[in-house]
Design a protein that fits this description.
This protein is mostly beta strands and 209 residues long. Helix content is 9%, strand content 38%. The protein has a six-stranded antiparallel beta barrel with strand order 1-2-11-10-7-12. A four-stranded antiparallel beta sheet has the order 5-4-3-6. A two-stranded antiparallel ribbon has the order 8-9.
């Protein structure tokens, strides 16, 4: 099983083996507790449900509290997510998964919610060039024509328009793990990842590496 729930701490710089400075994102990866197991015989697929963080009992539905009690989980997790699992995995309910699970992994895919930028125009949102500023242009930051009057007489779906920018789920693939520090439950991942400081991220073994 190569999947963990984590929290983005921030960015810093470290030196690699050749003495070059590498920008890295510090991610607190785990510890995650196994709250449920899905099996091929019962559910039709193999997966593990991991919990991360903590939550007050008053904020957790009674049904979920019963599920956690059955799994032997004492601290109610704040974030819960399923990760696909090999059928021959030896994970058990109540087991704790830490950053050490990625000690032999070189590349990962990281999923998080991008920073919200509010309502933006097409120049900032999609990098439009806008119109000219001279000779009576007067539309420097406008999108220009968005459709035809005669045919089709409407604006096509998917047209790039002003609107909400950011604040959506983004996955960055093929990020290199520079270092794993099991004692601190920390991963140092090269480059930036999609999340704000303190934001929740989901880490998977890279699919294309």
């Amino acid at each position: 099983m190569k999947g963990l729930i984590g929290k983005k701490i921030g960015m810093t710089q470290v030196y690699n083996e050749s003495g070059k400075i590498v920008p890295v994102t510090v991610v607190e990866a785990g510890p995650c507790v196994v709250t449920a197991l899905r099996t091929q015989e019962r559910d039709g697929y193999s997966a593990v449900q991991l919990g991360f963080g903590s939550k007050k009992a008053k904020n957790v539905p009674k049904a979920q509290q019963g599920q956690y009690e059955k799994a032997g989980v004492t601290t109610l997790p704040a974030i819960v997510k399923e990760f696909r699992l090999a059928a021959d995995s030896d994970l058990e309910l109540g087991a704790v998964v830490t950053a050490a699970a990625f000690s032999d992994v070189k590349f990962v895919d990281v999923t998080g919610k991008s920073k919200g930028r509010g309502f933006q125009g097409v120049v900032k949102r999609y990098n439009f060039g806008g119109g000219r500023a001279s000779h009576g242009g007067d539309w420097e930051r406008k999108p220009g024509s968005i459709g035809m009057c005669e045919f089709p007489g409407r604006v096509y779906k998917g047209r790039k328009m002003p609107g909400q920018m950011g604040n959506k789920q983004v996955t960055t693939q093929g990020l290199e793990i520079i270092a794993v520090r099991p004692s601190d439950n920390v991963l140092l991942i090269k480059g930036s990842i999609p999340a704000s400081k303190g934001g929740t991220v989901f880490i998977n073994i890279a699919k294309k590496k």
